[in-house]
Write a structure and sequence with these properties.
374 residues, 2 domains, alpha+beta, nine-stranded mixed sheet
Length: 374
């Protein structure tokens, strides 16, 4: 526990005024992350967890004035600067991460639906996260600026990441020349989805690849990859076509590192009904092999299925009503820290919900989670 206080939270500056400060910041943060791991989803629950475990916490923490009150926990998280807590989050995550032979990072956004404040005309907070599919870890997150969107948040998130040798996947909102330039400048590759925000490019790529796939034109050097999986009465066939022929693209010099364009088709059959969807991408990956782009696109779905779904189902994030100051942003980071630890702990063959229960019941297991890779 002392290692958590020192290595993870020790460098944070206390945002409170010194006068009247009774509880230590590392103690407050350590109790909070323990409470979140064990099922707390509100400030009253965090304080109640601390009181219930006071004897155990006193063996590891200073606690000069006992367990803080609910209002103290909330006040600290309202005032704490999100970017400073994000730096702690990134440090802890890097310690958890394993080396991966093919690092893929998916970037996508999620709205904290109940964080809107109608009385003060405050919109719901939208967080953009980076998900490493091979490690199954959330590597970082930032909030979009008020009255803005993901385009402004993605560059700030990329700044936090080491992209050397990494392939970054982003949905159509992030398909921007500036973002492609930043990824390449940081030593990474990109696979960016095309839609109506790049309407001309989307239409050009669609026409080119659709005609080539249907063999309606003299064929380019088109490379294909196909894979099939299924279960529970569902069959899914994913087909990927890619070409390195981008010389036709008039604006190609404005897209740094552009080497290929691709189409990915997903055909799903369930309950006797079949649906087909085809999407289009620009990429800095080599266009002579469709498999890497196929893997990147498939792994991108992990941020929705493994991160966002887990936060809603196991942590009930969409129902959180935290609104004051920075509390919603900062508590969201605590959830992601907890999810990273629970996902990375492999000795217990349980789902995230049951691991949270076990941590609440078993002090040794909770301590094991807190000290992973420290």
């Amino acid at each position: 526990m002392a290692e958590v206080r020192r290595k993870v939270f020790g460098g944070l500056k206390d945002p409170r005024k010194r006068r009247g400060r009774r509880h230590l910041l590392p103690d407050i943060l350590t109790i909070t992350i323990c409470a979140v791991i064990c099922g707390a989803d509100s400030w009253p629950a965090v304080a109640a967890f601390g009181r219930a475990k006071a004897k155990w916490f006193k063996t590891y923490l200073a606690l000069p004035h006992g367990i803080p009150s609910r209002s103290t926990f909330e006040r600290v998280f309202v005032l704490l600067r999100p970017e400073k807590l994000e730096a702690c989050f990134a440090t802890w995550t890097q310690a958890l991460a394993d080396a991966s032979p093919e690092p893929l990072i998916a970037i996508d956004g999620k709205t904290l639906r109940r964080s809107f404040d109608q009385a003060n005309d405050k919109a719901a907070i939208h967080m953009v996260s980076a998900w490493a599919s091979a490690n199954r870890l959330c590597f970082g997150q930032v909030a979009t600026d008020a009255k803005s969107n993901e385009i402004t948040a993605i560059p700030r998130l990329l700044d936090l990441l080491d992209l050397a040798g990494v392939t970054v996947t982003i949905d159509a909102m992030g398909c921007q020349k500036k973002i492609a330039r930043q990824i390449v400048a940081q030593g990474g590759n990109y696979v960016l989805a095309l839609k109506d925000n790049q309407a001309t490019l989307h239409e050009e790529v669609k026409l080119l690849l659709d005609d080539q796939i249907a063999a309606r034109r003299k064929p380019l050097m088109l490379h294909a990859h196909e894979e099939t999986d299924g279960g529970h009465g569902r069959v899914e066939i994913r087909r990927t076509w890619v070409t390195a022929d981008v010389a036709w693209f008039e604006d190609r010099q404005a897209w740094p590192g552009l080497k290929s364009v691709a189409a990915v088709e997903c055909e799903r059959t369930a309950d006797g009904k079949t649906s087909t969807e085809r999407r289009y991408f620009v990429s800095s990956l080599d266009g002579t092999d469709a498999a890497p782009i196929a893997r990147a696109v498939r792994n991108h779905w992990g941020i929705e299925n493994s991160l966002h779904w887990s936060l809603d189902m196991a942590f009930n994030e969409d129902q959180s009503r935290m609104r004051r100051g920075n509390s919603a942003q900062n508590f969201s980071r605590m959830r992601r820290m907890a999810l990273n630890l629970l996902t990375h702990e492999k000795t217990e063959k349980l789902g995230i919900k049951n691991k949270r229960l076990m941590a609440a019941w078993d002090h040794d297991y909770l301590l094991k989670l807190l000290t992973l890779r420290l």
